[in-house]
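Worked example 3 (structure in, sequence out).
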C-alpha cells in the first residue's frame, strides 16, 4: 500500500472572506477556466492551481495512474490566516475542515484528513482541534512553522501542545510566512531556500525551547524532509555544548528527535538514505506535495530509487509508517 502523506486540497467554492471581514489579506479563489484558478492574496496571484486541488474524482484518477492507494489531505498553508482575528480564522478553518471531512466520508478508502486550527489563539485552536478529531474524524492537525513571527516555542502555545500530547494528536508542520522572504523575490527562492530554512527553525525552536522535553510523547512530522534541520542537527548540538548559559534543556538537541518524523520530499535518494541512517526508516513517510509544481512525480519515486534499503523498510516508508503515525491500525 502506498500512502501519500503530503497533499493539499481546497474547496472549489472557497468563500471570499474579504467581502465578509476587513483586512484584505484573505486568500481567495479566482477562476481562470473550468479546470483552473488562481489563489489571490491582496489582489496579486499567489499561486496558480488546477481542479486537482478541489476535485476528488480528478485526484483519484491521478492516484490510479501514479499507483497511490491513499492520500492524506491537508489545507494549503496560505489559508492558515494566523494574522486574522481568531474568530474569523476559526471560521475559515471550519470551512476547510468540514470540506476535508466530507471528502474523506465520500471516499473513505482513498483519503485521510488533517485539519487546521487558528494558532493565534490557542484556546480557540484547542476547541477546533477537538472538533476535528472527535466530531469530524480527522486524524491529525497541520500547523505552520511560526505564528505571526513567533517561533513554536512561544509560551502561548504550551497548552496547545499539552493537549496534542494528551489527546495523541499527530502534527504536520508545514512552512509558511518564511523568514527572510523579503530577500527572496527572484527565482522563487522562497520555495527552494526559504521553506527548508523556515522548517529547520521551527524544529530547532521546539527542541531548544524545551517543548519536546516537556511533552516527550508529541508526534510531529516535518514537511520536505525536515528542510535543512537534519543536516544542521550536529551544529545545533555543538551550540548547546559551547553555550551552556543558553541551555533550556537537560540534553543536547539530538536527544529529542525520537518522535520526529519526516516526509520523503527531498528530491534525491542520497538524502533519503541520510534520513534513514540518521533517524531510522520507521520515521520516514512518503510525501509528494501533490498537486503543486514542486511535487514528486510519481509519488515515492525517490524512495524506490534509494539503494541499500531492504524491501521491508522501503514498503514501510511508502505506506505503513504514515498509517502508524496517524494512529490508524
Amino acid at each position: 500500500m502506498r500512502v501519500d502523506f503530503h497533499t493539499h486540497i481546497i474547496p472549489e467554492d472557497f468563500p471570499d472572506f474579504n467581502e465578509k471581514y476587513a483586512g484584505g489579506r484573505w486568500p481567495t479563489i479566482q477562476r481562470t477556466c473550468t479546470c483552473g484558478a488562481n489563489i489571490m492574496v491582496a489582489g496579486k496571484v499567489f499561486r496558480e492551481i488546477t481542479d486537482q486541488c478541489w476535485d476528488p474524482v480528478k485526484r483519484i484518477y491521478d492516484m490510479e495512474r501514479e499507483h497511490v492507494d491513499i492520500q492524506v489531505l491537508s489545507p494549503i498553508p496560505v489559508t492558515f490566516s494566523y494574522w486574522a482575528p481568531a474568530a474569523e480564522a476559526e471560521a475559515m478553518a471550519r470551512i476547510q475542515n468540514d470540506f476535508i471531512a466530507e471528502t474523506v466520508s465520500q471516499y473513505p478508502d482513498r483519503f485521510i484528513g488533517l485539519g487546521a486550527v487558528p494558532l493565534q489563539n490557542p484556546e480557540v485552536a484547542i476547541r477546533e482541534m477537538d472538533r476535528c478529531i472527535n466530531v469530524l474524524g480527522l486524524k491529525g492537525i497541520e500547523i505552520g512553522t511560526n505564528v505571526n513571527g513567533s517561533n513554536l516555542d512561544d509560551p502561548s502555545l504550551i497548552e496547545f501542545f499539552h493537549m496534542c500530547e494528551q489527546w495523541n494528536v499527530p502534527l504536520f508542520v508545514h512552512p509558511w510566512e518564511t523568514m527572510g522572504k523579503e530577500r527572496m523575490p527572484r527565482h522563487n527562492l522562497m520555495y527552494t531556500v526559504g521553506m527548508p530554512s523556515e522548517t529547520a527553525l521551527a524544529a530547532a525552536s521546539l527542541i531548544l525551547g524545551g517543548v519536546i522535553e516537556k511533552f516527550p510523547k508529541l508526534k510531529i512530522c516535518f514537511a520536505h524532509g525536515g528542510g535543512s534541520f537534519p543536516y544542521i542537527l550536529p551544529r545545533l548540538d555543538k551550540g548547546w555544548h559551547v553555550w551552556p548559559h543558553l541551555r533550556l534543556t537537560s540534553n543536547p538537541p539530538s536527544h529529542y528527535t525520537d518522535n520526529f518524523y519526516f516526509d520523503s520530499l527531498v528530491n534525491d535518494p542520497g538524502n533519503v538514505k541520510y534520513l534513514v541512517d540518521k533517524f531510522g526508516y520507521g520515521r520516514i513517510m512518503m510525501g509528494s506535495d501533490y498537486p503543486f509544481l514542486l511535487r514528486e512525480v510519481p509519488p515515492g519515486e525517490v524512495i524506490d530509487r534509494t539503494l541499500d534499503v531492504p524491501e521491508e523498510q522501503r514498503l514501510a516508508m511508502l505506506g505503513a509508517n504514515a498509517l502508524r503515525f496517524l494512529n490508524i491500525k
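Notes: The radius of gyration is 19 Å. The chain has eleven helices and eleven strands.
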